[in-house]
Specification:
alpha+beta; D-amino Acid Aminotransferase, Chain A, domain 1; 6-stranded mixed sheet; binds adenosine-5'-triphosphate; 22 helices; OB fold (Dihydrolipoamide Acetyltransferase, E2P); 8-stranded mixed sheet
Length: 554
Amino acid sequence: MKFAQFAAICEKLERTSSYIEMKKTLAQFFKNADKKDVKRAAYLLLGTIEPSYSDINLGIAENMALRSLENAFDVKNIKAASRKTGDIGETAEQYAHSKPSLTIPEVFDTLHKIAAASGQGSQDKKVNLLSSLFKKCSAIEARYLARLCLGQLRLGVGDKTILEALADAFADKSAKKDLEHAFTIRPDIGTIAQTLADKGINAVRRIGVQVGTPIQMMLCQRIENLEELKQRTGFPVAVETKYDGERIQAHKKGKIITLFSRRLENITKQFPEITEALLKLTGDFIVEGEAVAVDANGGILPFQTMMQRRRKHNVEEYSKKIPVALKLFDCLYFNSKTLMSKSYPERYTALAKLLKKGKTLQLADRTLCSNSSCADEFFQNIVVGGGEGIVIKSLKADSSYQAGVRGWHWIKWKPEYVKGMRDTFDLVVVGAYFGRGRRAGKYGALLCAAYDDKNDKFETFCKLGTGFKDTDLAHFFKLLKRTDTKPALVNCSTAMEPDVWVVPEIVVEVAGAEITKSPTHTTGYALRFPRFLRIREKKPEQATSVKEIKKMIN
Ligand code: ATP
């Protein structure tokens, strides 16, 4: 399949703002695609070459892309030209005039080689590989290749849009649910797309758990009072400590351990002591728990201490300084069998069986309760000890593990709910406003959005300017990735337009006083007196949804 077809679809998508039109355009593109290239095309549309949980990183910085353009077209000082256009894509297209000949496999394989190049001389190798592609590009191909390399494709296409378009292209409407379900247990858009194109929807339905590939994590619902448990889960229930650390899904296959974060990122290297402890257990499995920092006596240390373990360097040193324990609470797979459709008691039995006594791996504290006052008693003890709260888990025969679902099998209960206070919101930063006075030279406020899962878009909800320490502001200035234009997945009214747009990938926890109707925020609501609490380790699609906000209003 020609790369020109990909470039043409990018141009069309860029000009479309309607979600329905986008889906139609994408479905048509997949229908016309060479079957063997469907996987590659799906990844490229998302601006990547591998599933999002893989460690692959193109590693192309702007300077390297500019050098590649200079190399390819034998010109100097493209940087100046690029400053004028403000967009690497527009810069690249000014120089590229070849007849389109590139194929999708050729681009895809070269990008893989670029990603794989490491060590001495790798920068030059990357530049040479990239310029070999630019040399063969037509203007429009160069535009999208350049943006692709720098992670600036901005087509407004998310996983959900692609899954829906795939259903329209290769199956029918009824297939959407199956595709979405497959994506929760195999969050790899390329594999799902190729399976559907080659073998049809029945093969997608058979996609199962693969040890080493993360499963989207099950989430908790909220209740108004503990009495509600009667109708939600019924009794008895398991009541567990809700640890405030980092959720980890641990996979063991033979001697290979892979640890995934809540964002499904591979974080194995961060926790050598967990890896070591898991290797001592017998069999292949997938288990889940919360990693917490512990003191010499096994006492749990605050979340802030735990966060110091989120690091790429000096890991060994910090694992001695701040050891962690993994408080385990679920088992999704054991020795060639998925346990996801089994009830929680069955999964818990499997988990308890495979564990050995040790310091690093422990079962989460829990008790079984047959009424709400028992749950409350457990909760009060946790709160007195400074804990975050409890998670109440259904023990019914249908209490399966619901991947990626915020369902009623798990219910959280925290001190703030008791006081009748609203829960906090997890919002995606989509833009920023420059600060003044003490905040000059940094951002003074952030534009935050909720996720609309119906349309796969981020809708604005508040301008966040309080709760920051000076160090937070300096951190945000470095952390947020600026983009020149509004990210296509973001909806924002002109009244709220920020000074800079940022890639919608950072999720922040925000407290607020109340929700009011708003003509300026695109959720239709605004959070009054928002206050920053912390950065959350979540994917943007896991942020508070517009649906949840509407539910809170009601
Ligand atoms: P919150 O902001 O309240 O932590 P959240 O949106 O991050 O919520 P939820 O699914 O609503 O996530 O709450 C469950 C989270 O609590 C899990 O993602 C997990 O990280 C953490 N957790 C701690 N202890 C447990 C436990 N015993 N069982 C399940 N989850 C637990």
